[in-house]
Design a protein that fits this description.
Elements (H helix, E strand, L loop, with lengths): L2 H17 L22 H5 L4 H16 L7 H10 L3 H24 L2 H16 L24 H16 L6 H24 L12 H16 L4 H20 L11 H21 L10 H7 L1 H5 L20 H10 L18 H7 L19 E4 L4 E4 L9 E6 L15 E5 L3 E4 L31 E2 L13 E7 L3 E7 L10 E11 L5 E14 L1 E7 L2 E6 L2 E6 L2 E8 L5 E7 L11 E7 L3 E11 L5
Antiparallel strand pairs: 1-2, 2-3, 3-4, 4-5, 6-11, 7-8, 8-9, 9-10, 10-17, 11-16, 12-13, 13-14, 14-17, 15-16
Length: 619
C-alpha cells in the first residue's frame, strides 16, 4: 500500500473511531495476529537472543522448574481487606506471574519440553483462581464473591500474557489446556470488555483520563489479537480500544503536561506506546496512534520536565530514583520516524516479560545513530497551562543550581497538595530542597483519608502554612501565573496561590515569587507575600533529605550527599524561629525527609518571607 493509501486508511480509522461513526475502518485488524512465532520454530528461536541472554533465561527457567512459587490464596487476598496492606498478595501474585514468564522464555530459547509441562501445571491454579484482579481493586469484594468480573491493571496484563502463551505453545499445550485458556480469556477479559463497551457493565476505566485507561486498553488489545475470536467480533472490540484510548490523551494538558508525574508517564504513556507498536505491527504499519497531535505533545514530557540528564522532580506519585525510560523513548522515536540513538537502547534483559519480548524482540535499530549521548538541555522549559517551569544552567557556564517549580492545582491525577512547591538541585544530580515523592500504597492511599499522609498533604512540601492550616484538595485550588520573565541571566515567576488555602477566610493575598539567576554559581530565591484581614500565624518550609544547621541568626546551611547550599532568611524585620521535624510515612525512598519550618514569632496581617539559596563561597 502506498503512502497516500496508508494516510487515507489511517484517516478513516481515526476520524471514524473518534467520532463514533459506524463505517468499517480499513486498517483495524480482524484476524488473529502473532507477535511471536511458535516455540516449534526452532530456526527463529535458536537465533532469537545472544548466547549470554539465552543462558540467563534458561538458568532462570531452571530455578523456577526446581522450586516454583505458589499461587496466593484467600488468606493473602483478605489481608488487604483486614489491614489495608497490599504488599503480601501483590508480591506473591507478581512472583507467580514472573515465574510463568521465565518458564515460557526458557522453553522458547531452549526448546525443552520440560519447561512447557511445568508452565502448563502453573496455568491451572491461575485459571482456577476466583479473580485475576488485585484485592485493592475489588471494591466490596464483588469479584471475589463472583458478583461481577472486572478488568483491572493486573488482570488485563494476565490476559495478554496468557493469550501470547496460547499462541506460542499452541502445538505443545494439551487440548484441555488450550480449551481452559480460551474459556478463561473469554470469561475474564473479552466478555467483560464487550459488556463495558455496550453499556451492560459499568465502564470503570474505559473513559478515564489517567493511566488506568491506557494500561488496561493496551493489555486488552494484546489479548484480543491473541484470543480465539471471530474476525467481526475482534474488529469491533479493537475499534472500542482505539476509540477509547483517546481519553488517556485528553488527560494530558494541552501543553503536554502529565500531572501523574514521571513515574506514571513511564507506566501510562509506556503502555500507550505498547498499544501503538502493537497496532503498528498488526496492520503492517498502516495504523500508528503516534500520529495523533496530542500524543506527540505528551511524548515530549520527559525531555521538558527533567532537571538534568539524570534528575527528575518527584512531583505527584513519582519515585525519587526515576530515570529516563530509554526503551520507551526509543519506541517513541521509532514510531515518530525519528533518527534517534534511543532506538539502539531498546534491548531485552533476562527478566523481560513475555509481553516485552513479544513487542521488542529484534527491534529495528537506528544504524545512523550511535549510543545515547549526554543530554544538551535547553536553559528553560515550561508547561504554561499547568504552571510548571524548569530552570537549568546555560551550557558551558559555571552555574551549579537548577530548579523545577510547580504552580498547578490540587485537583490532579495522583494529586499531592503541592501548589507552589519546588525542587532545587546542585550540579544536576543532588536535590537539596525536594519533593519527597510517593508513598507505598495501602488502603488509605486512594481513599477519603489520602491527605492524612504527610507525604501527600502540603506538610510534606516546601509551601506555606497559615494559621496552622495546610492546603486543601479538590477543585478551585489552581494557581495563577501573575508574572513571567525569562532571560539568559535570570528568570522570575510569580504565582497567586491563595486558592489552595481558600478555606481560610482571612486571606486577602498570597503570592509566591521564584527568582533564578545564572550569574556565577547561581542563586535561587523563594519569596512568600501574605495579606490577611486579621492577624494570623505564618510560616514557610523547606523539605530536604539532608541535614541542616543554623550558622547565623538569618542563615542556614543545608547539606545533602556532600553538597552544601546556604540559605539566607529575610522576614523584613519580623522575628522568626526555625524548627524541624522528621516526616514519618511509608515512603518509597530509603530515608525519611525533614521539614524545616521558618515561622514568624508573632501573628501578622502583612508579611513577606524570602529564602535565598546559593552555593557557599568556600565551595
Amino acid at each position: 500500500m502506498n503512502t497516500k493509501k496508508i494516510l487515507t486508511a489511517l484517516g478513516i480509522v481515526m476520524c471514524g473511531l473518534l467520532s463514533g461513526a459506524t463505517a468499517r475502518p480499513m486498517a483495524v485488524p480482524e484476524n488473529e495476529f502473532a507477535l511471536l512465532p511458535p516455540m516449534s520454530d526452532r530456526i527463529f528461536w535458536n537465533g532469537a537472543v545472544d548466547a549470554t541472554l539465552r543462558k540467563q533465561m534458561i538458568d532462570q527457567g531452571e530455578r523456577v522448574f526446581s522450586a516454583s512459587p505458589d499461587m496466593p490464596g484467600e488468606e493473602l487476598y483478605m489481608e488487604y481487606v483486614r489491614t489495608g496492606i497490599r504488599t503480601g498478595y501483590e508480591k506473591a501474585y507478581g512472583d507467580y506471574r514472573a515465574a510463568m514468564n521465565r518458564l515460557a522464555m526458557a522453553a522458547c530459547v531452549s526448546g525443552e519440553e520440560k519447561y512447557v509441562r511445568k508452565l502448563e501445571a502453573m496455568l491451572i491454579p491461575l485459571c482456577r483462581q476466583i479473580t485475576w484482579i488485585l484485592p485493592a481493586h475489588d471494591v466490596g469484594l464483588k469479584n471475589w464473591k463472583k458478583q461481577i468480573v472486572n478488568i483491572d491493571l493486573v488482570s488485563s496484563a494476565v490476559g495478554w500474557q496468557l493469550a501470547l502463551m496460547r499462541q506460542v505453545f499452541r502445538s505443545h499445550f494439551r487440548q484441555e489446556t488450550l480449551a481452559m485458556l480460551d474459556r478463561e480469556l473469554e470469561r475474564r477479559i473479552v466478555a467483560p470488555f464487550e459488556r463495558m463497551l455496550c453499556g451492560k457493565q459499568p465502564p470503570h476505566w474505559l473513559r478515564s483520563k489517567n493511566n488506568w485507561n491506557i494500561v488496561c486498553l493496551a493489555n486488552v488489545a494484546g489479548t484480543l489479537l491473541g484470543a480465539d475470536l471471530t474476525p467481526e467480533r475482534r474488529r469491533k472490540l479493537l475499534e472500542g480500544v482505539i476509540r477509547n484510548s483517546n481519553h488517556f490523551l485528553i488527560g494530558f494538558g494541552k501543553d503536554g503536561y502529565c500531572s501523574e508525574g514521571m513515574s506514571y508517564w513511564s507506566y501510562g504513556f509506556g503502555h500507550y506506546l505498547m498499544l501503538s507498536l502493537l497496532l503498528f505491527k498488526a496492520t503492517d504499519g498502516e495504523m500508528n496512534l503516534m500520529d495523533r497531535p496530542q500524543a506527540c505533545l505528551a511524548a515530549e514530557y520527559p525531555e521538558k520536565i527533567r532537571i538534568s540528564d539524570t534528575l527528575f522532580p518527584a512531583f505527584s506519585d513519582c519515585t525519587l530514583d526515576i530515570g529516563l525510560p530509554k526503551v520507551w523513548i526509543g519506541v517513541r522515536d521509532y514510531l515518530m520516524k525519528r533518527s534517534s540513538p534511543f532506538r539502539n537502547a531498546v534491548r531485552l534483559h533476562s527478566r523481560s516479560t513475555l509481553t516485552e519480548v513479544a513487542l521488542l524482540l529484534k527491534f529495528p535499530a537506528d544504524k545512523a545513530s550511535g549510543t545515547v549521548p549526554k543530554a544538551e538541555l535547553p536553559p528553560f522549559s515550561e508547561f504554561p497551562d499547568a504552571g510548571i517551569f524548569v530552570m537549568r544552567p546555560l551550557s558551558g557556564t559555571e552555574t551549579r543550581l537548577a530548579a523545577a517549580v510547580k504552580g498547578g492545582s490540587n485537583d490532579e491525577f495522583h494529586n499531592h497538595n503541592d501548589v507552589g512547591s519546588y525542587v532545587l538541585a546542585v550540579d544536576g544530580n543532588v536535590s537539596v530542597a525536594v519533593d519527597p515523592g510517593a508513598e507505598h500504597y495501602d488502603g488509605r492511599s486512594f481513599s477519603a483519608r489520602r491527605y492524612e499522609s504527610r507525604l501527600n498533604n502540603s506538610f510534606g512540601h516546601s509551601v506555606p502554612r497559615i494559621n496552622g492550616q495546610l492546603q486543601i484538595a479538590g477543585k478551585d485550588t489552581d494557581s495563577k501565573v501573575l508574572k513571567k520573565h525569562l532571560s539568559d541571566t535570570d528568570v522570575e515567576i510569580v504565582f497567586d496561590i491563595r486558592k489552595a488555602y481558600r478555606q481560610i477566610d482571612s486571606i486577602r493575598k498570597l503570592e509566591r515569587t521564584f527568582r533564578y539567576s545564572r550569574i556565577g554559581s547561581g542563586t535561587f530565591e523563594v519569596a512568600d507575600t501574605v495579606s490577611l484581614s486579621e492577624p494570623g500565624t505564618f510560616e514557610t518550609a523547606v523539605i530536604t533529605f539532608g541535614t541542616w544547621k543554623q550558622t547565623a541568626p538569618d542563615r542556614l546551611l543545608l547539606t545533602c550527599r556532600g553538597k552544601n547550599v546556604a540559605v539566607t532568611v529575610d522576614t523584613g524585620g519580623n522575628p522568626f524561629r526555625v524548627s524541624s521535624e522528621e516526616i514519618r510515612e511509608n515512603i518509597r525512598w530509603k530515608e525519611n525527609p525533614h521539614r524545616i519550618a521558618i515561622t514568624l514569632a508573632e501573628p501578622v496581617k502583612e508579611a513577606r518571607i524570602r529564602l535565598t539559596y546559593r552555593i557557599p563561597e568556600e565551595q
